[in-house]
Amino acid sequence: MKSRDGSQLAILATLLCLGLLAALSWNGGAKQDALIVYCSHDSVYSEEILRDFERESGIRVIVRFDTEATKSIGLINLLIAEREHPQCDVFWNNEILGTMKLQKLGLLQRYQGSGFSRIPEAFKSDDGSWAGFAARLRVFIVNTERMAATPEAVEQRLAGELSNDLSRVAMAKPLFGTTLTQYAALWHELGGDALQRQHRSQRKRGLLEVNGNSVVKDLVASGRCDFGWTDTDDFFLAVDDQQPVEMLPVMTPSGKTICIPNSVAIIKGTKRLAAAQRLVDYLLSAAVETRLANSRSRQIPLGPINEDELPDDVQRLRPWAANGGDLKLLGDAHADCLKWLQTEYLQ
């Protein structure tokens, strides 16, 4: 009997091992079949959209997000580091200049599907490597209890006409994200020497540099700072919290606003091309642009949209967005400006 019991136990153990191996194999296969998305857009808005795509399409999605302080540079550097063995299938970036850098390096897969066709030419690559959607604007956020929310009042402070002290003015460090895009636009129009002089003057006068646009928003909304540079999505969070703030569009010397779309691209070398294409078309759809317009971020649709479905806050932004400068011209300025900024902050 003992021998028979031993044999039965051995068989049972073998079956358990085989079951475990099968489970591990299934899990590995499930992960292998999943669509890997790198995303630098705020997870509070993007993750729900990606989960809805997952439910509607039946395609499993694994998402890797970036941090607030290093958006979107961290993921771009990771994609470059992985170029020989790509891990990512689709990159959802919260701006376009980093995506353009990946395009220049030949890391993006061309695709012109139904989503691509509805986006205006100004907001997508000529060769189908990437497309923009759901834009934000660079704005001044002003505490109306501290100062008048007028272009003249802001310009006087920055020019030093009222005070040489900028310790009550906040800006995210320009190494990353949309502040870097703003600096690239200024580099393109002013030239590197003029921008460097302006930047160093503002820092010398006590400009408060912080880790991210949301921190700028908090400082101004609380009254710790009088005004600062941020994006429309952060501004509206302060509005929703009933803070005493108003916004003004940031203008370049040529009189253009800085309209910064999200962008989406397929990474060259993906083994899940059909699934990646489905996600790209999904993100570039009118439904997703409308959804982001009606979220707390109030992002601005770029493609054809039912205007009646847009909130008043987004309607207000549409003319500003239409006056946006062409960010596709900033590729060289972005590279040169970032190289200089790295010597200012990282050495």
Describe the protein in words.
The chain is of the alpha/beta class. It folds into two domains: 34-134 and 261-314, Periplasmic binding protein-like II (D-Maltodextrin-Binding Protein, domain 2, 3-Layer(aba) Sandwich); 136-257 and 337-345, Periplasmic binding protein-like II (D-Maltodextrin-Binding Protein, domain 2, 3-Layer(aba) Sandwich). It contains 14 helices and ten strands. Strands 1, 2, 3, 4, 5, 6, 7, 8, 9 and 10 form a ten-stranded mixed beta sheet that branches. Helix 7 crosses helix 14 (331-345) and helix 9 (213-222) packs parallel to helix 10. The longest helix is centred in the N-terminal third of the chain and has 32 residues, at 2-33.
The CATH topology name of the largest domain reads D-Maltodextrin-Binding Protein, domain 2
Overall 3D form: globular
What do the pLDDT scores average to?
A: 90
The total strand number stands at 10
Could you list some keywords that capture this structure?
single chain; 347 residues; alpha/beta; D-Maltodextrin-Binding Protein, domain 2; 2 domains; 10-stranded mixed β-sheet; disordered N terminus
